[in-house]
Amino acid sequence: MKKLFAFTLALALMLSMTACGGNANKQPSSSEDSTYEDVLGEDSSIEDQQPSTDEEEGNEETTPPTDDEQETKPDSKPDNNKPSNGGNSKPDNSGSNKPSNGGNGSNSGSGSNTGSGSQDETKTYSGTLPDLINAIYANHSVDLSLSDPTAVDLSNSDQISYYLGLTDASKLKEAYYSEALIGSQAYSLVVVRANSAKDAASVAQSMFDGINQNKWICVTANAVAAGAYGDTAMLVMANTDLGETLTTDLRAAYASAVGGALDVSLDRVDTL
User: Fold this and answer.
1) The pTM is what?
2) Are 133 and 163 a contacting pair, CB within 8 Å?
3) What's 168's domain CATH number?
4) Of residues 3 and 118, more confidently modeled
5) Which residue(s) pair with 191 in the sheet?
6) In 3D, which of 191, 196, 220, 195 has the Cα closest to residue 207?
7) Which of 16, 94, 210, 267 would bridge with 165, disulfide CB 3.0–4.6 Å?
8) Which domain holds residue 195?
9) Per-residue pLDDT tens for 2-35?
C-alpha cells in the first residue's frame, strides 16, 4: 500500500509538472499585447512632453530683464524747441532817426510853411546868382542903399554862419549876398546854388532856422522869408519898420525871377 500510494503520488506530481510546463510555453493573447503597447505609448508621450534640461536652461538665459533692471537711456533726439540763430536778430536800417529840419525856427510870432513837397531835379535857374539878385530887385525895389551882389567865401566858416546861418557849405556850389550899406538898418538878402534841387530845399530850411537875426548893432530883423526853386534857394530878412510885407514881397519877386512856383516857401514875423 505504501508503494502504491508513493507511485500514485509520484504520478500525480509528474502530471502536475507536465501541466505547468504547457502553460509556461503558451503565448500571450493579442489583447494583452495591445494593452502593453498602449501603456508603453503613454510612457513615451509623457517623456516627449517633458522639456529637456537644455531647453529650460536656454529659456532662462533669454528671459528679458525686469523693468527695474532696465536702465533709462537718455533721449538723443535734438531739441527742436531751441530758438533759431538764423534770424537775423539783427535790427531794421531802412528808416532815418535824424531829426527833421522841417519845423519853424521862430521863437514867437506868426509864420507859414508851404511848398509842393517834392523837388523837380530838371528845374534850374540858367542865369548867374548876381543876375538873380538884380532880377529880384527889378521885380520889387528896396528903398535902401544896398551893396552890389557879393560872393560868400564858402571856405570861410565865419562868413557861412554870418550871411547864411549854416554850419557848413557842403551842399552848396556858390552863394551871394546883398545887404544895407548902413549898419543901423537890419536888412539882408542871400541867394545860393545847391548841388541839387533836394539840397536846395534842405538849405532853404536850414538858413531859415539858423540865421542870426540880431547880427546888427541895436537893430533886429524880426521878419524872415525863405524859398527854393530847382537848384537855387533864397533868404531875406528885415526889420518890419522897413515894410510890413517887405520880406514876403521879395520872396514873390524871387519866384517871378526864376519863372515858376516855389518848391519851398517859408516865412515868419517875430514879435519885437
Assistant:
1) 0.59
2) no
3) 3.40.1000
4) 3
5) 176, 234
6) 191
7) 210
8) 125-269
9) 677 777 777 777 766 655 554 444 444 444 444 4
Q: Which cell is 24 given?
A: 509556461
Task: Give me the pLDDT at residue 3, please.
Answer: 72
Asked whether residue 117 is assigned to any structural domain, the reply reads no
- Domain assignment present for residue 34? The answer is no
Measured CA to CA, the distance from residue 230 to residue 46 in angstroms comes to 119
- Helix, strand, or coil (residue 95): coil
Is the distance from CB of 174 to CB of 154 less than 8 angstroms?
yes
Q: Position of cell 544896398?
A: 146
Counting every residue written for the chain, the total comes to 272
pLDDT score for 118? 57
Domain-embedded: residue 42: no
Q: Is residue 78 part of a domain?
A: no
Inform me whether the pLDDT recorded for 81 exceeds 80: no
* Count of domains for the chain: 1
Query: From CA 215, how far away is CA 212, in angstroms rounded?
Result: 6
Q: How far apart are CA 51 and CA 74, in angstroms?
A: 41
Q: What pLDDT is stored for residue 18 in this prediction?
A: 58
Strand bridging mode 187-194 / 150-151 = unpaired
How many angstroms from the chain centroid is the CA of residue 139? 54
Judged by phi (left if over 0) then psi (alpha if -120 to 50, else beta), residue 258 lies in alpha
